[in-house]
């Protein structure tokens, strides 16, 4: 079992912790190189720009807090991405948005679409969170099935299933849009 | 479904979406991230100082004085904040509650010496006034009053565990409760003494409160072998991406109005990692044999644990109704502990409806069942901690064509 410092020692360690300048620059470069891509992925997932920006900012904030450790990882951006997606998943779960998405999905299957234009963002909003997450990570983030499985702590077969179903659901919605546009 | 043309279409569509989204988003600068972290650390330093004092001198808390409590408590905390956090021996000593301001249950009811302290079942569903869960939490975590619900119950304030213990060597048995509420990502927990009062119950003392930014969260409580209460503490409430394994953890013993960190091995503590897997080993007409295996991957013995199941509508445990996962899992088995490195195996028969009877959504998306393992701490008088939640459930999918 690990030991714990006294409260005074904790205060000292917090107050004197200052990353060296080179680490500062490293973090800045890392942030600049990845923040927009990650935020756009979270925007596609949550459908809310401000929320996506907040989630990614929080993830980078946590990375900065332990930057000396995170920078040593083989793939620091994977760590930040995982934190951001976990935050997003927790947030959606808390708000009950998952249930609303599921309800919308059921409604869509039980009744024919009413002719509203369905673009990719709206199509994404209409599929289940796991399926949405899988297709965004696959096609926007460019992750492999193995990498998605690792991030999500799921079996590769499960991720393949998410992708298969997610693509099927998206394709159905986008096909509806295409057909209506052709008429 | 997944032709090369589809792949190209998806790749192109998401590429366009990504490009336009990247132009649309307005992330803060790296300097703003630094400022955010500095503010957070500054807050933590302040709260840590207060929390350190609070741990050394837990505030006695009386509901009957709730009307004046806020006026009284805030200036006291303000004085402590401005005091020397590295104060000398005098200020570091735990302070006894002021007897004259404490309600005396004994004198009010005259029955507490003989009445047993309330149990978990006594308190679930009860409404009682609680100390606040912290600044700006009243909306999400109402405390005046709060209705205590079980962990899987409706309502924001959860009763997690109740133990009975004597807090002083010659004192009476008292009910000590671990109560939690989740106003945001992480749960805020507090440890309270709860006693009978009139026809109901009252929280009469707060032993510990974890608020955001504080330095310790109580994951579990247990009665000490002699007297006092053991508090299992983590450096912060595990949440979201936080791995429990990465958090500092320790045990304190609360006695006589103060707590003390324990070093060395503490007996009767179950901190370990259970992992569950489920494999379909045989198929019959409408049934599947599923072998469920629980492995204790940790270095310590596991306490009593439960195996649970939930599923989509066309799958169920043989002879049972199907249990929708949105309703929470149904308990199937209880197992009396598992040694470090050992495994437990059990075989279940599940029923799967013929595919033509699956609802339309089931045919489109398949059917699945989920097996979970839990080590509920409220079943035993010991400290229990599951260190890795990610391997606590196993999911089996019956694909859209009925195979598994």
TrEMBL record, chain B:
Compositionally biased spans, kind Low complexity: 98-114
Residue ranges, compositional bias (Basic and acidic residues): 74-83
Domain of life: Bacteria
Disordered, as annotated region: 66-125
Name of the featured protein: Uncharacterized protein
Taxonomic source organism: Glycomyces luteolus
